Amino acid sequence: MQKPIELVVKGKTLRGMYHCPDQEGIYPTVILFHGFTSHKLEPHRIFLKLSRRLSAEGLAAIRFDFSGSGESDGDFEEMTFSGEVHEAQEILKFVRYLPTTDPERVGLVGLSMGGAIASILAGTNPTAVKALVLWSAAGIDTIKDIYHSKENQKVFPRNEEGSIDLGGLWLNPNFYDDLENWNSYEILESYQGAALILQGTGDQTVPPTTAEQYQTALQGRAKLIYIPEADHTFNRHTWEEQVLTETTVFLKNVLF
User: Fold this and answer.
1) I want to staple 185 with a disulfide (CB 3.0 to 4.6 A). Which of 65, 153, 217, 255 is the partner?
2) Residue 64 binned pLDDT confidence (cut-offs 50, 70, 90)
3) Which residues, including other chains, have CB under 8 Å from residue 22's CB and lie 6 or more apart?
4) Which CATH number does the domain 2-255 belong to among 3.40.50.2000, 2.30.30.140, 3.10.129.10, 3.40.50.1820?
């Protein structure tokens, strides 16, 4: 079963999709966090595909658009990393209190910057999160480098306020200042649950060494799987299939 859901955070409506098994009950539940400039489907609908697989296996899945992204309220120019972390915290609370959620069996999946947010959520809620999956997870250092380097400053135009034009989306000039408040590796160290890290060796956005930093932060509790030659969002059927299969098997093993 799939149905739309909404959550209001600081006056803005976040819009999402809730997937659950057809039979009534209380389910292990997985929250999916999308990446920078993306949305709750992600490229080639990989978040939708994962959600459907999970619900077919007896787990529920929830995927929201952060404010300013996808179909949620707000403008992208208002987005900050701190704002998305706050929204993720509210989403976790919302999901844990759903009558169909088993609050003792909640998992997180994060792609790219969504992986950094999922890491912070797991580290700040270590007793509320039982399973963590990181796909091409960006570190704060990586996020800074993507659009803040001198090379990219020449590529992406800016307006008079200093906002960066990311292909039609304005990125506010305070975005990078806000990142100084965060260290996703350090915060993740407080998480004691099971974790899976999936990383493409051909990722041109997030260096594969970032996955090793997350594994180090988890002090050996994470299984790291490299997808040979895969790009940042696993844009081939063979890459996608490995990611979906590994993730589904891992979440079933941990949450059941």
Assistant:
1) 217
2) very high
3) 1
4) 3.40.50.1820
